[in-house]
Design goal:
It is a single chain. With about 210 residues, this protein is of the alpha/beta class. It is built from seven helices and five strands, in the order H-H-H-E-E-H-H-E-H-E-E-H. It has a five-stranded mixed β-sheet with strand order 2-1-3-4-5. Strand 3, helix 6 and strand 4 form a beta-alpha-beta unit. Helix 3 packs parallel to helix 7.
């Protein structure tokens, strides 16, 4: 996260959740996409999705699947992360999971009813379930995932009738930009697979987004 982006973060975020912040990988690769620089005058869905998009670019630069997420409460970011599955060797280290953990640490409560999570791709089964379990008030995602998305794409965990919580859902914010980023990353992976590093599977994203 750059100093410029850090000014969007809530004052208590670094103090309470610094230990959960994304740590740069030892390997950095070039990303052909530029980060967005949204105006602070209008902190709407596009503004916060732009911050998630910027975290997705951070993921690309660390050779992770470019998905980013931020959690917002009262107009301030209290969680901000990108995918770190390969670097951490942790299958649960999705952007949404990390951002949710940061947000809970920042407010000292696992209940995130008053928070909104922004993510650049529709959450998978694991992340969708975590959002419901965290009682997130609202979830906003950019790109639908008809193969693995579980907030309406492949299925909708949020629609379970007997669940004791349902998130408000919004989709399609910065959809074109986030879709292009994902598709470009996997095109590059198909063209130039790393010789000593397992290539990320494109099954869930390449044709579906």
């Amino acid at each position: 996260m750059s100093p410029d982006e850090a000014r969007f973060i809530a004052p208590g975020f670094h103090r309470d959740a610094e230990f959960l912040m994304s740590k740069p990988s030892s390997r950095t690769i070039e990303c052909p996409f530029a980060k967005r620089h949204p105006s602070q005058l209008v902190r709407d869905d596009a503004f916060f999705m732009s911050l998630a998009y910027n975290r997705a670019i951070d993921a690309w630069r660390q050779d992770e699947v470019p998905i980013g997420a931020v959690v917002v409460r009262d107009g301030e970011v209290i969680g901000s992360a990108h995918n770190q599955v390969d670097a951490s060797r942790d299958p649960t280290a999705h952007a949404e999971m990390l951002a949710i953990t940061q947000a809970a640490a920042a407010i000292g409560d696992w209940r995130l009813n008053e928070c909104t999570l922004y993510v650049t791709k529709e959450p998978c089964p694991m992340c969708s379930g975590a959002m419901i379990m965290a009682r997130l008030g609202r979830v906003v995602y950019a790109v639908a995932d008809p193969k693995m998305g579980c907030l309406g794409g492949a299925t909708n965990l949020n629609a379970l009738e007997r669940a004791n919580h349902h998130c408000e859902l919004t989709s399609g914010v910065l959809e074109a930009e986030c879709r292009e980023l994902l598709q470009a990353y996997f095109r590059l992976k198909r063209q130039k697979p790393a010789p000593d590093v397992p290539r990320p599977s494109t099954a869930d994203f390449a044709d579906g987004v």
